[in-house]
Amino acid sequence: MLRGISHLISPELLKILSEMGHGDEIVLADANFPTESFGRRAVRADGIAAPALLEAILPLFPLDQYDRSNFVLMEVVPGDPYKPVIWEEFKAVLGRYDPQAEVQHMERFAYYERTKKAYAVVATGEKAQYANIILKKGVVK
User: Fold this and answer.
1) Bridge partners, residue 45, by sequence
2) Quick check: is 67 catalytic?
3) Is 24 labeled as catalytic in the residue annotation?
4) Cβ 55 vs Cβ 45: under 8 Å
C-alpha cells in the first residue's frame, strides 16, 4: 500500500499510468467492451465501477491541455433508446479535477479504431452501457 494512491489502482495499472507519456491514451472500458480484442495492453479491474476508477486516476493523471479530445465517450448507437445516465457521474468527476475539460463523443466503430491505438485498455466491472472513456494524458507540471 502507498499513501495517496487509491486502493482501486492495482500495481499493474499504476505502472502503466507512470509509463504513459504526453499524448498517450488509456481506455476505461465497461464490462461489455471487447477489451481483449482491442487492447494492446489489457488490464483487469474487475468489480470496480468506472466512476470510482476515474475518481482514483484523475488526481494522478493530467489530461492533455492541448487536445480538446482528451476525454471521449462512445456515442449511443443511432436508434438505441438507451440514455446513459452514468455520463452525468463521469462529468461530475471530471469537473472536480479538470473543470475546463470538455466531454467529447465518438461514433462506436471510430471509437474501436481509436482504442486499438491506445496505450492500454482497462476492463472495469462497470455494468452500465456506453460507460467507456478514452483519457489522453497531458504534461505533468
Assistant:
1) 124
2) no
3) no
4) no
Catalytic, 22? Answer yes
Which residue in the list 30, 64, 119, 130 is annotated as catalytic? 64
Residues above pLDDT 70, as percent of the chain: 99
Side chain identity at residue 80, one-letter code:
D
CA distance 70 to 63: 6
Tens digit of each residue's pLDDT (9 = 90 or more) over 29-70: 999 999 999 878 999 999 999 999 999 999 998 999 999 999
SS3 content of the chain, % helix, strand, coil (to 5): 30, 20, 50
Instruction: Walk me through the domains of the chain, giving residue ranges and CATH numbers.
Output: 23-136 (3.40.1650.10)
Q: Among 24, 67, 98, 112, which one carries the catalytic annotation? A: 112
